[in-house]
Amino acid sequence: MRDVLAEEGLPPQRLLLKFPGHRLADPQRSLDVLLRLRGQGVRIGFTGITELDIGLQRLVLAPLDQLELDVRSGSASQRGTPYVRALAAVGAQCGYTMAATGIATAAQRRWVEAAGCAFGVGPACSDVAAVQLA
Q1: How much is the pTM?
Q2: What's the rounded Cα separation, in Å, for the pair 76 and 54?
Q3: Helices in 54-105 by DSSP H: which ranges?
C-alpha cells in the first residue's frame, strides 16, 4: 500500500479503504492488517453493517474511521430505523464518520440524516457517488 500511495503521490490520509462488514466477524484475523494500514495513515471503513449481527465490543474496538450502513434492510418498514439509529449513535460516539447506502426515498433520507449519517448514497441523494447529507 505504501508503494502504491508513493507512486500515485497520494497522501495516505486521503485514502479510505472500505471492507465488507463481515470482516468484523473475525476481528483477530483482520486486526493486524487494519492496524498496519492505520499506522500508515490510511483511513479504514466498513460497509454492509446492517446485514450483520455484530458484537458491540467488536464494533467499538475496531480500528476504523467510517461505518457505512445499508438502509435497504429497513426500507420496507420502520423496523430497521431503530437499528440504524443505534448503530449511527454508537459510531458517532466512537468518532466514526457515518454513511448510509440504499437511500431510496426522501423519507429514508430524512431519518438517515436524523440518525446522524453524514454521507449518503442512493436514488434519493443524487447521481454522484456520495452526497454529504448534513
Answers
A1: 0.59
A2: 22
A3: 56-61, 80-93
Going through the chain in order, the beta strands assigned E by DSSP cover: 16-20, 43-47, 66-70, 97-101, 119-121, 131-132
| Domains of the chain listed by start with CATH number | 2-132 (3.20.20.450)
Length of the chain (residues): 134
Q: What is the largest CA-CA distance in the chain?
A: 47
Q: Rounded to an integer, what distance in angstroms lies between the CA atom of residue 2 and that of residue 6? A: 6
What is the rounded CA–CA span in Å between residue 53 and residue 41?
A: 29
Helix H or strand E encompassing 3: helix 2-8
Each of the 134 residues of the chain gets a pLDDT tens digit; together they read 788 888 888 898 888 888 777 666 666 667 778 888 888 899 888 776 654 556 677 777 778 888 888 877 554 445 566 777 777 788 888 888 888 888 888 888 888 888 888 888 888 876 444 556 65
